[in-house]
Design a protein that fits this description.
The protein is an alpha/beta fold. Helices cover 25% and strands 29% of the residues. The strands form 2 sheets. Strands 7-12-10-8-13 form a 5-stranded mixed beta barrel. A two-stranded antiparallel sheet has the order 5-6. The relative contact order is 0.19.
Length: 293
């Protein structure tokens, strides 16, 4: 079935609308970062950069490192932007731009988020690294899609989370998705592992109070004290659950890596977050180039 022009929008050069990319301009291994200015911090490690495209907050560099073709794409902040980026990355891989139809042979992408987060555990201090075993969303994005493919472990984790926090009685129905096992196994040494909660904002939705009172002041404590078997909530941020949830539905391998810039339990913030992010970028690229993707 042909997809209407109003649903699948291409710009004047025939590129997908928001990312301003053609299918030939994106690699199968994609690093996502939030900040557009972080894109060149990744691509500076490339042996060569063949493509540079941008539109609004979406900046893309595609090049090669150690013989591997890699793209780095900025998403901006929040799962509203993740909805755009994940859908358009999938379209670049799996929709025929000329016929406006889904390809019969689907292509699987490897999507690696490199971002920042707030730690919810004292033993994951600022300047440490977290890899997300699961993304648990309290942001509402996946509730707009048909998403009933949770396995028993995911269903159990979600049920225990709802019971522990009672969030669904006040806010959006939470959702959960696991990271890709094929990627998680390579990110072990030097990383804390745990569930990442994805929030729909930076202040109230993450329990920060400036001038406005909080409708759920016990949020931090409820997240920090959640335990389910071998799992606990390690951190929170604003993108991971959207990437994991949409990635799973679309059939892509996704992993989220975070540099801890704030420890919300200890009330501390990194003295040099730029150095920490740089270290995570370098560590991630070393792993990517050493494995078969």
């Amino acid at each position: 079935m042909q997809i209407a022009e109003s649903e699948f929008i291409l710009n004047e050069r025939g590129a997908v609308y928001h990312l301003n990319l053609l299918p030939s301009e994106i690699a199968s291994t994609i690093i996502t970062v939030g900040d557009p200015e972080r894109v060149p911090l990744v691509s500076k490690f490339f042996d060569e950069v063949e493509i540079k495209q941008s539109h609004r907050e979406f900046v893309t560099h595609t090049g090669k490192l150690a013989g591997k073709r890699i793209s780095v794409v900025s998403t901006g902040i929040g799962t509203d932007n993740i909805d755009i980026v994940m859908q358009e990355l999938d379209a670049l891989a799996n929709i025929d731009f000329n016929g406006r139809q889904v390809k019969k042979q689907l292509h699987q992408l490897n999507i690696i988020r490199i971002g920042t987060c707030g730690s919810l555990q004292k033993d994951a201090p600022e300047d440490s690294f977290v890899v997300s075993t699961h993304g648990l969303g309290i942001d509402n994005l996946l509730n707009f899609y048909v998403a009933d493919d949770n396995n028993e472990e995911e269903k159990n984790l979600l049920q225990q989370f709802i019971l522990h926090t009672q969030l669904s009685s006040r806010f959006a129905q939470p959702y959960i998705a696991a990271g890709a096992a094929s990627l998680l196994k390579h990110f072990v040494d030097g990383f804390h592992h745990g569930i990442t909660v994805t929030c729909p904002g930076f202040y109230g939705p993450q329990g920060r109070m400036l001038r406005l009172g909080l409708a759920y002041p016990e949020l931090i404590d409820r997240l920090t004290t959640f335990n389910a078997g071998n799992y606990r909530i390690m951190n929170f941020e604003m993108e991971t659950a959207g990437i994991y949830g949409l990635g799973k539905l679309l059939g892509h391998n996704c992993i989220s890596l975070s540099a801890v810039v704030a420890n919300r339990v200890a009330g501390t913030f990194s003295k040099d977050s730029g150095k920490t992010i740089h270290s995570l970028i370098e560590k991630t690229l070393n792993i990517i180039t050493s494995i078969n993707l």
